[in-house]
Amino acid sequence: MSRADHMDVAAYALGVLDEHDTERFEEHLATCWACAAELETMVPVVGLLSDIDGETMTALEQTATDPALLDRTLVAVRAHRRRTRFRQMLASAAAVVVFGGLTGVGIASVAGGGETPRIGAQPTAPTTLDGTPSPGKSTGPNDPGTGGNEQEGEPFTAVDASTGVQLNMWLISKDFGTRIDFQLKRLPGPRTCRLMVVRKNDTTEVLSTWSVPGGGYGTTTNPLPLELSGATSVPKDDIAKLVVQSVDVNGVASPLVQVPM
Question: DSSP character for 187?
């Protein structure tokens, strides 16, 4: 192999060889450990050169006849690299601060016996004489629409004292009428259910029907609640109450839980 082949390492690393010379050098590289070792040492240099954009290269070419311009260009390039490294260092430091803050919360939870620290007083929901939340607008931190819940609409909640079924609702006024998002817990199955809207003039409308599997929703067997949406042409101010009913095989309906407006 000629000496010229050994001198193509830098040109190959910078990617300036044509296709024929590249293939010839790669064949040589496969059997020459000296060139392979030299190529490995050039990898960091090639990485640094890749950070220099076209404008910087043009400026460097112009410095061939102007030593003072060369000095200014090199100073500018070094300053740019220092700023880049400084920004990277700040980003790394910010990540460490965020991670440290999250870790601190985790440590506080462990040290406190697993309890999550709470700030400020927590509101409580009104209850009936039997201790269940009273129907109407919800006010508790875990009730719909409060305690950081981002659900849209006016929230309501109710728990039926006899069936134990819990209903959380969000009513949103729309141009077409009212959209109703609702969530059911402690709903046993299997059964067929429907949501009824009762207007203030005592007329009714079925908004939605669904089937409940044997494990139910929001139960010990299936802890996940049932979440559905419905819509009606009735304006929100004309709704007297919303009722969830259980419908048997003969079509006879019985109330499970209701929310008065």
Answer: B
What stretch(es) of the chain map to CATH 2.60.40? 154-260
97 band by pLDDT with thresholds 50, 70 and 90: very low
Res 143 pLDDT > 60: no
- CA 184 – CA 190 distance, rounded (Å): 14
pTM given for the model: 0.45
Rounded to an integer, what distance in angstroms lies between the CA atom of residue 104 and that of residue 258? 44
pLDDT digits (tens, 9 = 90+) for 102-116: 444 444 444 444 444
Distances (CA, A) of 57 to 44, 45, 52, 54, 85: 18, 15, 7, 5, 21
Q: CATH classification of 154-260, choosing from 3.10.350, 2.60.40, 2.30.110, 3.30.750?
A: 2.60.40
Nearest to residue 206, comparing CAs of 182, 175, 231, 189?
A: 231
Amino acid found at 153:
G
R_g (Cα) of the chain, nearest Å: 36
At CB < 8 A and 24+ separation, what contacts does 45-50 make? 45/13, 46/13, 46/14, 49/14
Cβ atoms < 10 Å from Cβ of 5: 16
The torsion angles phi and psi of 201, rounded to 5 degrees, stand at -95, 15
